[in-house]
Amino acid sequence: YLRPLYDALYEMLGFEHVAKLIERQVIEVAPLAYMRGRTLNNSFIILDESQNTTVEQMKMFLTRIGFGSTAVITGDITQVDLPKGTKSGLHHVIEVLKDVPGISFTHFQPKDVVRHPLVQRIVEAYERFENRVADETPKDSRRDA
Questions:
Q1: Distances 117 to 113, 124, 127 between C-alpha atoms, Å
Q2: DSSP letter at 73?
């Protein structure tokens, strides 16, 4: 599950450089489960695939941010893999923190896809389909994502 993160680091910095940075503890890759009780000072913190955090996990992560740190949270609210009825921490945090000074959100569109052009067309097709289904579904029967 951490493979995509390592792949991105290797692509940007090269395998040997990443290995040295990890060895010198400049880069630390840690599962969310190991964050409880920590304070991350003077750090650049990335939470990837955050659409699959629970509300409680997201709150725990956000309260780890220490002095001199910046946190970046990435995720796609259209790709939640949580059990039915479990609210996504990403979806929740967008609602809770939208008006908090010092916090901002960037929402990407299908045109922002930087993969194969076919992927952009796939994303757009899913978006059109989901919008059409949402328009046809009574509001009280929709799943709380």
A1: 8, 11, 16
A2: E
